[in-house]
Specification:
Collagenase (Catalytic Domain), single chain, 44% helix, alpha/beta, 5 helices
Length: 172
C-alpha cells in the first residue's frame, strides 16, 4: 500500500490567516482588528519573500496571539526557555503540517511592551506592531540565532513594517 500523499495547492494571493486573540490583560490600544492587520502584513511579507526566493509557500497560517501580564509572561519564559523574567514577545512555532498550514502561538507581555516603548521613545503602537511582526516571523520558522539569520529576519521585519508605513525599529 502506498503512503497517503498530501498535495499543496499554491495560494492565489497571500496565504489564508486564521487568528485567535486572547486577552489576559486589558489592552484597549491593541484591538483584534489591529493585531490581525499586523499579522496579515507579516504573513504576506513572508509569502512574498519565499516566492521571490523560489521557496515553497505555505498555504495557510493558524496563529494565536495572547496578551499577558508580567507574572504570566515570566512564568512562560521560565517554564519554556529557562529564563526567569518576563520578555516582550515569546513565540511557539509548531511548523507546517502536511497540508501546508503553518501554526504557532505568540505571547505579548503588555507591561514589558509599555515599558520598552517608553524607554525607546517609541509609540506603543509602533513597538507592538514590530513585536507582532517579529513574533509572526518566528512562528513561520525564522530565527535570529546565527548572524546571517538575524540579518535576514531583521531585513524582512523592516520591509514588512515599511509596507505598513512604520519606521525601521532597529535605528534610534
Amino acid at each position: 500500500m502506498e503512503p497517503e500523499s498530501h498535495s499543496r495547492t499554491k495560494p492565489a494571493g497571500p496565504p489564508a490567516l486564521s487568528l485567535a486573540v486572547q486577552y489576559a490583560v486589558q489592552a484597549d490600544e491593541l484591538p483584534r482588528w489591529r493585531l490581525r492587520r499586523w499579522a496579515s502584513h507579516a504573513v504576506a511579507g513572508v509569502a512574498r519573500a519565499q516566492a521571490e526566493a523560489g521557496q515553497e509557500v505555505f498555504c495557510a497560517v493558524t496563529l494565536t496571539i495572547r496578551l499577558v501580564d508580567t507574572d504570566e509572561g515570566r512564568q512562560l519564559n521560565r517554564d519554556f526557555r529557562g529564563k526567569d523574567y518576563a520578555t516582550n514577545v515569546l513565540t511557539f512555532e509548531y511548523g507546517v503540517d502536511p497540508d501546508g498550514t503553518a501554526s504557532g502561538d505568540i505571547v505579548l507581555c503588555m507591561p514589558v511592551l509599555l515599558r520598552e516603548a517608553a524607554e525607546q521613545k517609541k509609540t506603543l503602537l509602533a513597538h507592538a506592531a514590530h513585536l507582532t511582526v517579529h513574533g509572526v516571523l518566528h512562528a513561520l520558522g525564522y530565527d535570529h540565532i546565527e548572524p546571517d539569520e538575524a540579518q535576514y529576519m531583521e531585513s524582512l521585519e523592516i520591509s514588512v513594517l515599511h509596507k505598513m508605513g512604520l519606521a525601521n525599529p532597529y535605528i534610534s
